[in-house]
Amino acid sequence: MPTQKEIDRRYASIRAAMAANNVDALIVCGNQYAGFEGAVRYVSGFEIVHRYVYVLLPLSSEPTLLFPREARWIGDKKSPWVRDQVWAEIPGKWLRERIEEKQWKRVGVYGLDFIMAVRDYRELQQDTFELVPFDFHFDMARAVKSEEELAGVRDAMDIILDGFDALLKSYQPGKTEAEIMAPAVERFFARGAGPRMMNIVLSGTGGEAEAHFKVPSLRKVAADDLLLYSLEVTGEAGYWVEFSRALIHDKPSARTRAMSDVYPEAMEAARRKMHDGVLACEVHKAAADVFQRAGFALGHLTGHSIGLTMIEHPAIGANAKIELKENMVCSFHPQVVDQDGQVCLYTQDTYRIGKKEGECLASVPWKFYSGAEARKTA
In this structure, which topology does domain 147-377 adopt according to CATH? Predict the structure, then answer.
C-alpha cells in the first residue's frame, strides 16, 4: 500500500491536469487484460483479478470504486484505500446518473478507446455531457515516478533478472520453447508477479528469428535456433518492467550478426540521450540513425513510458515531441528488421530518465547467450 503522502501526490497531480483541461470528474478504466489493469490500482489501491473496474475521481470530492455486480466476490475489496465502493448492474448507467445528479459538463475518461466496456459507453453517450479522452493527460500526470514508486520498479527488475537467470539455466537444445521459458515464469510467480506478466518470443531457425511475436510453443528448439524471449512482468507492487536478450547455442547467421554488431552503439547512443529536458523523438533518433547507417530499419515501436500500466504515454518514436523529465521510467526496445521485413533482432531494457543521462536498470551485457554462462555461474 502506498503511503498517504504518495496517494496525496498522485491525486494532486491528476487533479491539476483535470483543472487545466476544464474537466469536472475523471473515469479511470481498468480490466484484466495484461497491462491494462494498472491505472485503477494507481488511483485506488484495488488489484483487478478478473473482469473490469472503474474509479470515479471528482475534481474536488472523494473517489468511488465502481464494480459490475457480477464481480462482487472477485478481488479483495478490503485492500484499496478508496472505501466508497459500489456494485452496479450496469456500471455505465450508475455513472450516467451520478454525472447527471452532480450536473457535471465535461467528464474525462482514461481508457475510452481500449478499455471501457461497450455496454457502459452506450449508457454514457445518451446524455448531453461531454466525454473527454484523457489517456495522454492522465499518463503525463503520473509519468515522473516518486522514490517510493522507483523502489517498486527496482524490485520488479530484480525479479525479472532472477527469472532470466532461471531461463538461462533451463536453456538447451532439444527442449521446447515453452519448457525453456517455464522456470522463469515459476520464479516470477513465486516472487509476487501473479498473473501480471506477458512472456512472448521471437524465434526462428538457421541462426535467425522471424519478425513476429508469438507464444512460446511446444516446438523443440535446435542448436541453431535464435530465441528472443520478451520478458514483461511486475513485482508485488504492480510496476511493469521489460527485458530481453538473445539466446542461441550455435552461431547466428551472417545477417543476424550484422544486426548485432550495431546494437551496443545504438543502445548506448539512446541511453545518453535519456536525460531531463530532451524530446522523446531525439532518443528514438539516436538509435535509429545508427541502425540506418548500417542499412537496417526499425520494426517494433522503439519504446514507451512504463509504470503500473504496461504501456503509458509518452511514446518514444519519430514523432514524439514530448519533453522527458528526470525519474520518468521507460522501456526501450528497438526491433531491427531486414529489408524484406522477414528477419529481425530484438532487445529490451528498462531505463530511468536521469538528470544528465539515462540509467539502465539491468546490468546485463548485450550479447548472444548460449546457456554456458549460467552453468559457469552455478
Answer: Creatine Amidinohydrolase (3.90.230)
Say which residue the cell 459490475 belongs to. Answer: 68
Those residues with Cβ within 8 angstroms of residue 350's Cβ, 6 or more apart along the chain or in another chain: 153, 157, 241, 242, 243, 306, 329, 330, 331, 332, 360, 361, 362
Q: Please list the residues that pair with 209 across neighbouring strands.
A: 344
Strand partners, 66: 54, 86
Query: Which of 188-197, 267-276, 330-339, 350-359 has the weakest average pLDDT?
Result: 330-339
Measured CA angle at 349 (ends 236, 255), to 5 deg: 140
Architecture of the domain spanning 4-142: 3-Layer(aba) Sandwich (3.40)
Confidence of residue 378 (pLDDT cuts 50, 70, 90): very low
Q: How many CB atoms lie within 10 A of CB 172?
A: 15
Q: Whole-structure pTM over 0.90, yes or no?
A: yes
For the chain, give the longest Cα–Cα distance: 68
Q: What percent of the chain has pLDDT over 90?
A: 85
The share of the chain scoring above pLDDT 70, in percent, equals 98
Q: Domain residue spans in the chain?
A: 4-142, 147-377
